[in-house]
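Collaborator request, handled under Task 6.
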Amino acid sequence: MSTRPGSRAALAVVAAALLAGCGAAPHTRGAGAVSSFGVRPVAWNPASAQVGKVTAVADAGSVVAVFGDAGATVLSSGAVVATDRSVTDWVDALPIRGADGSPRWIVGIDGKGHLHYLRGLSSFEDVSARYGLDGQRVLGAAMFDGARVGFLLDREIAVADGRRVTRYGVPAFAALLGGGGTGAGVGTDAVTVFDARMMARTYPLRGVTHAAIGPDGRVYAATPRALYAATERGELALVYDAGGDSLHGLVASGDHVWFADGAELGVVDGERVSETHGAQVAPDARLAPSPSGDVWVIAAGALQRFARADPESALGATWSATLAPIFARSCSSCHLPGGVSGTDLSSAEAWQSERRAIRDRVVESKTMPPEGHALSDADRDAIRAWAEHR
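Structure tokens returned to the collaborator:
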């Protein structure tokens, strides 16, 4: 007798529950199936700029746009460069391929389903018509690969590849996601995955709420209780049983696939599952991706960013905790990419490459920053400690 992938997954959960009476069930913390790892908060808003109640975030690397009831706030390397208050009902946001062929546009989707593009790091404009979506309500969007972006409509997906927009009829999806050359829709009791020719494969899974496509193209799916990963045979296999209805997030972010489990954060890589102890995220928090591999956490209008603490270079940790806030306060007006100084100091790697010059001009001669750009003694001492550390 054969069973469908979703049936196997459901049977796996039942079997795990039955085994609980004989000791810890497999794929659980108690059975040793979950290892521990640490996270650290990342200072994404060093100047503590007011961004209102956050509903979405789009991370394009050095540029991050935060969306909420106060409008959209644009940050470059942690420094606020623009605030657009023309729209305040944002529901989603992400970087996508531009309608003009640009590799990345930051876009937001408002409550009416209109698509808005960040132009020139200054303001947002409605670009629904440029993707052939004028008059359509966009429910979500996802990058399938470097050339194709999909837009979720009412029982349709519109796929733009830079030359044309093609529409495909689909079941009603609650969410659209993409990566690794594929797209996927989360529907009622199933995840449907589309390849480059939009040929579909369906993974039945009763109660599915979230899905993600890992950096290797592997499909992950979650119900409120359990986490699954696709096998080479095209089935969904149970990799983690939370023991209760506590899973509330799943997102592919850089080289990691993150999930939220109650107050903890987790990472899944194939059959390997790791969780934090004491992350204290809200039990209804939503997750958003970052190309860095960090994860954004949105809960009750607040926005946090977390990075894995293992392995983590001392430089990266020092930059996020100490140097990035100083850069935002005292250096960003001149030293952003393409800034008037001609020297980009917007990353940990850039500071490392300019270590000697920073020590000589900021710590020793004190000719930087120039007049009119304050740098406190405490900040200068922090830079001295970094510059002299080996």
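The cover message to the collaborator said: "Residues 5-303 form a domain with the Methylamine Dehydrogenase; Chain H fold (CATH 2.130.10.10). Confidence is low (pLDDT under 50) at residues 1-23. Please let us know whether this matches your experimental observations."
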